[in-house]
Amino acid sequence: MTPLGTVPVAATGAAGIPALLLTLAAVLAGTTLLGLAARRIRQPAVLGELIAGIVLGGSVLGVLDPHEPVMHAFSELGVLVLLFAVGLETDLRALWRVGREACTVGTVGIVLPFAGGLAVALALGASRLTAVVVAASLTATSVGISARVLGDLGRLHDDEGQVVLGAAVLDDVVGLVILAVVAGLVAGESVTALGVARIAGVAVGFVAAAIFVGTAFARRLMRVVGALQVAGVVGVAALAFAFVIAALAALSGSAMIVGAFAAGLALHDTPQRHEIERWATSLGHVLVPIFFASVGAQVDLRALASPTALGLGAALVVVAVVGKMAAGYAPWWFAGNKLLVGAAMVPRGEVGLVFAQMGAAAGVLSGATFGAVIAMVIVTTFLTPPLLQAIAGAAPPGGGDGDASSGLNELVTGAAQRTRRATVPRKKISE
After folding, report:
1. What value, to the nearest 5°, has the Cα angle with vertex 334 and ends 328 and 340?
2. Contact 354, 180 (CB under 8 A)
3. Among candidates 200, 199, 214, 294, which has minimal Cα distance to 261?
4. Tally of helices (H runs) and strands (E runs) in the chain
5. What is the pLDDT of residues 196-242, one digit of tens each?
């Protein structure tokens, strides 16, 4: 008997629509309920959505087939909206404001986990390409989760919070370049210094062009659509702009998510950014959980329970935690709480899932290896909130920072948006 939702709509016409609708209903209900349950135990909603995908996937109920064409398309749209939201939240000038501390933490937090993950994967018998994808998944940092927890603890505006957010900005930019390189490698590019340099050059060049050319065009576009004074036109125009840039990225040889991220960067400084953010968040509430659930549905629990997966997963967790914690101590001249900085860099969250999904879609990660990477993402994300609370102590009287929630944080953590905020506060870093 064919599992519910696995009938390709394109192949069956209208006959497949009821199955699709029931599958969507199950995914949206499951991700909402388990996302709320995760929030009740002070964990980000993304973990509940990921677990919902595992339950609905082939390992348990068989309701959700992430490879069904329509569900796959929804999932792809979800990750594009997610990366667009990341771009909207990313202020490249923040790297200059938070100074060398953030750059040092971000750089070391990329290099150490990547090198450690590559060594572990190769030592356990993974192919070179698989090991590169596994290592790349360890470089991520979830800015949404870190910002939310630091805000709840009242530490977002401290020197440590500023360094973490600045380092996360760097992780976003460099991580997207790494992702573009890995996407090129899984597409068949040669794993040579010249081949990697070419892929990286295309990715960096596209982002640079999108920022300089796209920003000028985006400002003109927003002035025109803003003058129309038609309800919803700003959000629709911004999303259309993001989809066009994502398509151009794919046509240029880069990754679509790089284009979506670049579109968000181009729109960051427009006066309508907060309105665009609300539109992206509203759409993301439907599409992003489908992406997270689709990633979870690809987990094979039987393969995950194998000794190989458990051993690789445990080793990746150790590398993931130690690498980011060590990065917190890299700026030795920084007088703040280095342990707090390192702990806040640990969660991989939604960014790690993007890497895992890309590797799975390309056929590079599967079975035990894919399960081990997902286990690493889950453990590091679960670990961070209680770890930060133990290090930072209770929030000060009056609650945490009032501006810790943003559109991106809503999509990742499930927290309701309260007030607008700049991505990185302008407080001066103490020497």
Report:
1. 40
2. no
3. 214
4. 18, 0
5. 677 677 777 777 887 788 888 888 888 888 777 777 788 888 899 99
pLDDT of residue 34: 92
Name the pLDDT band for 329 (thresholds 50, 70, 90).
Answer: very high
Q: If you ran DSSP here, which 8-state letter would residue 336 be given?
A: S
Q: Is 401 helix (H, G, I), strand (E, B) or coil?
A: coil
Q: Is the pLDDT of residue 89 over 70?
A: yes
Rounded distance between C-alpha atoms, residue 59 and residue 234, angstroms: 42
Does the pLDDT at position 337 exceed 50? Answer: yes
305 is written with which tokens? 């329970």
State the pLDDT at residue 401: 52
Single out the residue of 254, 128, 251 nearest to residue 199, CA to CA.
254
Tell me the two tokens of residue 37: 């349950």
Domain boundaries, the chain: 18-62+81-413
Token pair listed for 300? 């094979």
**H or E stretch covering 390:** helix 367-392
Phi, psi of 255 (to 5 degrees): -100, 150
Mean pLDDT of the chain: 78
pTM: 0.72
Look at the block and give the residue holding tokens 């991505």. 423
Q: Of the candidates 230, 140, 189, which has an alpha carbon nearest to the alpha carbon of residue 412? A: 140
Q: How remote is the C-alpha of 63 from its chain's centroid?
A: 25
d(CA 147, CA 424): 10
The band of 30, judged by pLDDT with boundaries at 50, 70 and 90, is very high
Q: What is the pLDDT of residues 122-145, one digit of tens each?
A: 988 888 888 888 888 898 887 667
High-pLDDT (> 70) share of the chain, %: 79
Task: Note the CATH number of domain 18-62+81-413.
Answer: 1.20.1530.20
- In this structure, what token pair is assigned to residue 63? 């309701």
**DSSP character string of 183-243:** HHHHTT---SHHHHHHHHHHHHHHHHHHHHHHHHHHHHHHHHHHHH--TTHHHHHHHHHHH
Average pLDDT over residues 92-112: 80
Give one DSSP letter per residue of 340-381, joined into a string: HHHHHT---HHHHHHHHHHHHHTTSS-HHHHHHHHHHHHHHH
Q: Are 303 and 369 in contact (CB under 8 A)?
A: no
